[in-house]
Amino acid sequence: MDRPSDYEKQKKYYSGKKKMHTLKNQIIVLPNGEDIVDVTIGKLGKTSVINLFRETHHKFSPRQKFLGDKAYKGEETITTAHKKTKKTEITELQKIQNKELSSRRIAVEHLICRLKTFRIASERFGLNRNKYSQVIKTICGLVRLRLNRLVLFT
Asked: Is the distance from CB of 4 to CB of 111 less than 8 angstroms?
């Protein structure tokens, strides 16, 4: 994405993690990567992924459980991998639980990889910022079509 010229506006888009001006997307998929359930598109780069989830999880049942990576640590509805602290290592049981969690999440990561094969979804977006949402939705539709989850009517 191009850097906005206005200082106050560009500050909102700056992602300290990526060290660039970004828009964030969040994709919620079924557990085995079978289909895309929800897409949040084009949030400001300054927004953390856990706050992005907290803004949008009201769409789901309060009892709904999710699997996530370490960026979602601290959210009680999301199961994340155990992380070692500065002073302690993780136990063997926690390592086994991490392996089981990552084997359950691998299909989700593969689906996200399918979205990123469309380079416009993973690299610098050179088009008009107003078209960003439309492009990401189109890419999600193409991936769903490839998964045979999108039904086209003629």
From this structure: no
pLDDT digits 0-9 by tens, 97-122: 999 999 999 999 999 999 999 988 87
Query: Taking the CB of residue 25, how many other CB atoms lie within 10 A of it?
Result: 20
What predicted TM-score, i.e. pTM, was given to this entire model? 0.76
Q: Which of 18, 94, 20, 9 is nearest to 49 (CA)?
A: 18
Tell me what the mean pLDDT of segment 76-91 comes to: 91
Model confidence pLDDT, tens digit, residues 9-27: 666 666 666 566 667 888 8
Which structure tokens are listed for 109?
Answer: 């990561």
CA-CA distance, 55 to 43, in Å (whole number)?
11
Long-range contacts of residues 124-127, Cβ cutoff 8 Å, at least 24 apart: 124/1, 125/1, 125/23, 126/2
Residue with tokens 């500050």: 11
Pick the closest to residue 135 from 35, 39, 36 (CA basis): 39
Q: CB–CB of 136/121 below 8 Å?
A: yes
